[in-house]
Every structure is written in structure tokens, then in C-alpha cells.
Amino acid sequence: MTRHSDPYAAAGPEADGRYLRVTLASGTTVRLECTVPLEGVLRLRLADRPGPRPDSPVLVDAPRRPARLRTTGQGVEITGPGVRAYWDRGVRQGFHFGSYHRFSEPEEAIGYFRSGYRPATRHHRTASWVETIHLNPGAAVYGGGESYQGIDLRGRRRSLRNKEENRAAGRDTAYLNVPLLWSDAGWGLFAHTGGPVDADLGATHSEAARIQIHGDDLDLFLISGDAPTILDRYLTLTGRPHPLPDWAFGVWMSRSSYFTAEEMVATVDELRAADCPVDVIHADEWLAGNVLEAAAWTYGPDRRRFPQDWARELARRGVRTSLWINPYVKRGTPLAGELTRRGYLVRDPDGAPAPTADNPDSLVVDFTHPEARAWWCERLAATLREEHNSAVLADFGEEIPDEAVFADGSRGGQRRNAYGLLYQNVVREAGLRARAGDFTAIARSGTAGSQRYPAHWAGDMPSSWSGLATTLRAVLSMALSGCSVVTHDAGGYYTPDSYARAAVVRRKMTPGEVPTDVEPELYARWAQWAAFSPIMRFHGMGRREPTAYPEPFRSAAVAACRLRRRLAPYIAACAARATVDGGLPLLRPMPLAFPGDRCARDAQLQYLLGPDVLVAPLLEPGGCRELYVPAGEWRQLLGDGVLTGPGWQEVRCAPEEFPGYARAGREIGL
To answer: Start and end of every Glycosyl hydrolase family 31 C-terminal domain (predicted)?
Structure first.
């Protein structure tokens, strides 16, 4: 470790009990506590951090089992179950990290790490730690949470800082960032932080990754293993997904928005008349206020449009309801004034309520304040009881300003990414309180640990072919970061015209005025992909019901919904297995499903759904797709094609066909 620009420590390391003592170039000595919480995992934690550490919601299991430290002629050897690491003396000071069973000498290590420290200065407002990792030639790098640029991050820069997106496909910024980065070379690095992390993953130097962790604290987990092992160990540390009710894996119908309860009933009846199943229907605009104009949950339900017990008519049809919420209140309202007096809002350094970084009128509920948390939890639980809804879309939670001050003394920079995790935790508690667990929330923001609270969706992507491909990249990257149940807005969220018209339509909230806005072939292909996603959920600024689109795309989308009904038991069973130790995420990108298979690794835009369904979404007009077929025979589920692998093959799909295949000889319940 070092200060300023010198990347090397000035003095050799020393073993001091369970601590590693290192003298920095400035003359300052730091101590790192070395523990082995799990087999194959080495934890390095700054022992003498000034001031208290805020409570972290990220970790669920990290036993403090001391590592064994031994000073040698080369430096300090650190060992424990499944771990052998060395901090070298001399010019190449830093960590060689490997598996105890496989690696015995420093030069055989799977990862070479260097650490450095940059204090706060006039030019850099906050301190940061810098980790430099040698990248093996030909190795890929994954993780980071939601990446719209692709699953292999090698050669890229990532800013792991939660941000309300600008709704442009293919950019670096994202709603949900996870400070886990790992390589198929056999190493993983998980930074235990709720704040931003910047990563240069071979962009500046092709064989070096530079990970900058903002803040003056350091808590690292170095993880060894192949892809399934690294993710399994990471999930043991940060938590596995809680189970979802089986109905969550049915067909969710939504648009932004249905404006009355009667419109929702009429939509369900229209779909049923077309023999199109629907299990859940969602409303954004159920409040006495426009959620586009006031991005906050400030008001109660609009009883003119959603009268008391409005959801019972849908329940009689076997359809559950979902409602939009978020963790903000609007400045200048009576509720904002009351919460300010109680001290329930996040504050700025002067003690005034702190707005989100992107909206001066959105004030943030402080979930580190026990009474504020209890109030908000009961508010949501009461809503679930009164409105009889089974689900919520837990929107927003990204734009926490760096200078914000929380009730527990933590600052916005420490909570920027972790606020979404705090939010999702209280949403789950409200669901348990009101519905005994018969409840599902779909969230947008989050970080490490958020996978405990499924599900998450890939945000507001455009209704374009580029938007479809970008969304696929995002959900695959989320899965490689530990998120098991991921979903997306089938059909895309918006077109420029429908977004502009939405502001006009929502002033009156008149049923029947939302337009059909997606190019029909794109709509059908997105609907087909949704049928093979962990959760099938339509949503967008325009109409998203299959019955709104012309033939043959209408029938193709209806057939996809029917297939989803038949697939749902298989998907629910796979999701349940993901909740237990050793369970893989429900959505399995090819590097995770087939570790060590270089051909599969190159198939970056396809995946397995559970162990036995191969999915290669159609990403361009015309129905043509090249995909990698794993070994064995695979039978098409929307169509009658049969593929035999291993190898790359090109398929052509008519409008009613789709590249979704079941492994021959496996029971998936169809």
C-alpha cells in the first residue's frame, strides 16, 4: 500500500499475530486483519480505521476465522483452508493469491494484487484505495452488476456508481452496481463497500486491472475457484435469494399506465377473450398525483379512479395486482413537512432535508433511522392490506448525494449504492408483515446483497432492437454478479414519441388514450424472449398487450404467453434451488453454465434458463440468429426444430418460432 502516486510500499511486510503490518512510502504503518471466512476466501480488512464503521447490510455470513501468518525470506505467507497467499518483499511488493491445494509457490498464483492508498486532497475530495490486479493473457473479467456494454468487461472501464439512467442503450452507467469482479483465470475480488468503485479492467494497460474503492476504509475479499465456485462463495457471504411464490413466475401485464380499475379489468377480459393468460397486472398511476411529474410516493390512492376494494374484481378473475412505489417524498407537501419535523429524512450537512442528486424536489426517507424505517414499513404494509395488492414495483433509490448525512452518521458517499439494499430490506419486511410472504417486489436499484430480495429489472431501455440487445447484456451481467431472478420491460420502456405523449395523456388520465408504440416484429420477439426470462413482465410507455398488435405478431406474442404458463413450474422449481447452498442463479450465462468451455464463453448473448433450457434471443429483424449449441440434443419449444451440439449453428425463425430449446431427455414439465 502507498500514499499519493508511488504504487509501492517503502518497507517490507511483517506478520503481527493475525495482522499484516505494512509501512507505506509516507512512513505511515497500517495493519490489515487477515481472516479466512470461507474455504478459498481471504479477507483483508483495515484494522485501525479512524472513527466507527457504519452498520453494513451487505454481509450475512463472514466468520472471523484468523488466517495463519508466517514471515519468510520472501515476505509474509498467509494461509488458511483453501488459501495460500504471499505478500512479497522487494520491488514486486503485493499479493500473490492462490488455492492452497493447487498452488504452492508465489509464481504459480492465480492472481497478483497490489494495493495503494490515495488520501483526500484539494483535487480529490475523498480518499480511496487502489487495487491493481495482473490480468492473465486471454482471461475474461465479469461481474460489476448491471452492464449495458456486455458481460466480458476486459478492456473496459466501469463506474460502479448507481445512477438514474439517461435511457440510452449501450452506455456504461447503470442503476444496479455490484463491487464484485471476477475472472475465469480463477480469481475474484469483492470490495465490501456501499459506495462507488471505479474499475479500469485492461482499458489503460491490457494486462492490468485498476480497482479504485472510494473512501478511507478497506475491506476486501479475495475469492478463488471456477465460475460456479466463485459465485457460490460470494453468495454465501452476501446472501442467497429469498424464495418467491409460484405465481410470480406467471405472466405480468403492465404499461405506464392503466389509469382506472375499470381499465385494468377490461384489459384482463380482453386478454382472456384472446386466450392470452395473465397472472398479475400492474398500475403505475394509482396515486392522487402524477408519478412522472412528482417522482415520489407522497400521496395516497386516488379513490375516484381506484375505489375502495377495487382489486377484488380482478382477484375474482384469478389475477393479482401490483402497484408502483418509491422511497421519496415531494418537497413542499404536508407529508414532507411532517417527516422533516420527525427527523425521518436524509439531511444535508446543514441539517436541511437532502434531495436526490438529480431532482431538488425528491426528498429521501432515511432507512438508517429506526423510527423512520418502522414508519415507512408500516405505511407499505397498510397499503398492501388496504389495496389487496400482492406485489410492488419498488422504483428508484439510486441518486443519493455524496454529501448527504444519515441518522447513523454515515454519509451519502458510503450509502450511494447500498441505499437500494436498505430500501429493499424494508420492502420485504412490509411484505412479510402484511401478506405472510405471499408477496413479490421488483426493484431497480441495488448492490451486493440485493440478490437476497428478488426480483430486479434492467431499467428503462428504449423500444428498439438496440435496446433489446442492451437489455439482454444487462440481465446477463446481473446474473454473473449473483442476481438470480432478473427481468426486463418486455417491449422496451419507451419510444421518443410515446414518452412525449405520456406527459400529455397523464394530465387527464383518461382510459384508452395510451398508444401502441413498438414496431410489431420487435414487440413479438421481445415478448418471446420474456417467456424465457426468470420473470415475464410487459411494461412500457405505450400499450404492451399482445392484443394491441397486428398479425402475425399478435399470435406469436399470445403463444409465448401460453408457453410461459406451461414453463412456469419448471422455472419456479429452478428458482427454488437457487435459494439453497450450491444453487446457481436461475439465469445462467454461458461462462457460468459451461466453465472452461472457450466456445461457450464466446457465446455472450445467450444463456441457460435453469439447467435444461437454452435461450438465444433474436436481436435483429428477420428472425435469423447464430448460436452456440452445447453438447447433446436440444428440442425447440416455440417451433419444431432440433439442434445437436457442440458447435455454432445458424437458425431462421418464422414469426411464431423462437430459439428456445429444451435439453432432450430432461423433464421440464411440458
So the answer is: 583-665
CA distances from 216 to 128, 181, 205, 535 (A): 6, 20, 26, 39
For 465, list phi and psi in degrees, rounded to 5: -65, -40
Q: What is the mean pLDDT of the chain?
A: 91
Q: Tell me which residue of 172, 208, 197, 146 sits closest to 459, measured CA to CA.
A: 146
What whole-number distance in Å separates Cα of residue 22 and Cα of residue 15? 9
How far apart CA 476 and CA 643 sit, in angstroms, is 23
Rounded to whole angstroms, the Cα distance separating 215 from 51 reads 13
Query: Hey, what's the cell of 371?
Result: 423510527
Strands 456-457 and 355-356, bridge-based pairing: unpaired
> In this structure, are residues 423 and 433 in contact, taking their beta carbons and an 8 Å threshold?
no
Question: Which grid cell sits at 222?
Answer: 479475495
Task: Report the alpha-carbon distance of residue 30 to residue 147 in Å, rounded.
Answer: 35
Amino acid type, 168: A
Which of 68, 253, 184 is closest to 594 using CA atoms?
Answer: 184
What are 85-127's pLDDT values in tens digits?
A: 988 775 445 566 653 322 223 334 455 566 666 665 554 456 7
Task: For residue 71, list its beta bridge partners.
Answer: 76
- SS3 string of 619-648? CCCCCEEEEEEEEEEEEEEECCCEEEEEEE
Helix (H, G, I), strand (E, B) or coil at 483: coil
Question: How many other C-beta atoms lie within 10 A of the C-beta of residue 337?
Answer: 13
C-alpha cell at 446: 441495488
Find where cell 455470513 sits: 61
Place of cell 488520501: 119
Distant-in-sequence, close-in-space partners of 409: CB < 8 Å, separation ≥ 6: 52, 54
Supply 601's cell numbers.
Answer: 464463453
The number of CA neighbours under 13 Å toward the Cβ of 94 is: 19
CA angle 357, 363, 369 (to 5 degrees): 110
Return d(Cα 652, Cα 432) in angstroms, integer.
46
Sheet containing 355-356, strands listed edge to edge, beginning at the edge strand earlier in sequence: 328-330, 359-364, 355-356
Place of cell 419535523: 341
Confidence (pLDDT) at 103: 25
Residue type, 505: V
The Cα–Cα gap between 273 and 124 comes to 62
Average pLDDT over residues 337-351: 98
Please give the C-alpha separations between residue 350 and each of 354, 544, 630, in angstroms, as whole numbers: 9, 46, 60
Determine the 3-state secondary structure of 305 from DSSP.
coil
